Amino acid sequence: MTANSPAEALAKLQDVLDTLLGPEGCPWDKAQTPETLCDYIIEESFELVDCIRSGDAPGTAEELGDVMFLLLFVATLSRKREEFSLAEALETAAAKMIRRHPHVFGDLKVADREELLRNWERIKRAEKEKDTGLYASLPKGLPPLLKAYRIHSKAARAGFTWETDAAMKAGLDAERAEFEAAVASGEPAAMAEEFGDYLFTLTEYGRRLGLKANACLDVANNKFLARYKAMERLALERGLSLDALDMAAKNALWEEVKKG
């Protein structure tokens, strides 16, 4: 693989895309719009995150390239629509980062990380011409667990959260008690509501401990999947049908896999 500069590599990728969209190009690519590419961007972004979290450097490089290609695709189609160019998008991003980091590019002094984040939120809100509410910039399409983290993070920066960790823990305990009471009632709607409240509060408890619920749950998911796959391999090696085993036998395999 030739180690070109980023600018040369980007130009090459643009040439490939222009060819795909040209008169002798690919019918599928030429039929795409920024709107039809949205799902692909989401899918490729998830694949990129999977590679990053699993420590797969070659996979990360490949998926990063796939995401970059789709972003360049959107920029190229938007330029053809005479909406904006890639250069304009990048210049806007650079200007935004400079504006939001006055402690780096200006003479603003911040005492600590919390003051830095509060200042970041103030700048973001000032950038909005119409809706200047705290959550005006919160993307509507965020996955629920990630959205809960962002909601709590913004609320904390605005000073609207439990004042102490002890108060936070008491709030979490209270939400757990309300959930258990709903379970005892047997009312599905109440259980669903209180379970949601408990998850929402648990997400804030994790945030205060420096834990991101979405990432932590992803690790737990992958750990379970890896262990279950190991159980399947172990059962196969021993000539056992995993599905036919009773719970005690399955638990024994599970514990063996955990120790291994």
Task: Reconstruct the topology from this structure.
Blueprint: H1 6-20, H2 27-30, H3 38-54, H4 57-80, H5 86-100, H6 102-105, H7 113-127, H8 144-157, H9 165-185, H10 188-208, H11 213-237, H12 247-259
Helix pairs in contact: 1-4, 3-4, 8-10, 9-10, 11-12
Task: Give a description of the structure.
This protein is an all-alpha fold. The protein has twelve helices and no strands. It has helices at residues 6-20, 27-30, 38-54, 57-80, 86-100, 102-105, 113-127, 144-157, 165-185, 188-208, 213-237, 247-259. Helix 1 crosses helix 4 (57-80), helix 8 packs across helix 10 (188-208) and helix 11 packs across helix 12. The chain is extended. The two termini are 39 Å apart. The model has no long low-confidence stretch (mean pLDDT 92).
Determine Rg (CA atoms, Å). 25 Å
Distance between the termini: 39 Å
Number of helices: 12
N-to-C series of helices and strands: HHHHHHHHHHHH
The number of E-state strands comes to 0
The global form is extended
Q: Describe the sheet with the most strands.
A: none
Report the β-strand fraction as a percent range: under 5%
Give the rounded overall mean pLDDT: 92
Low-pLDDT stretches: none
Q: What structural category characterises the helix and strand content?
A: mainly alpha
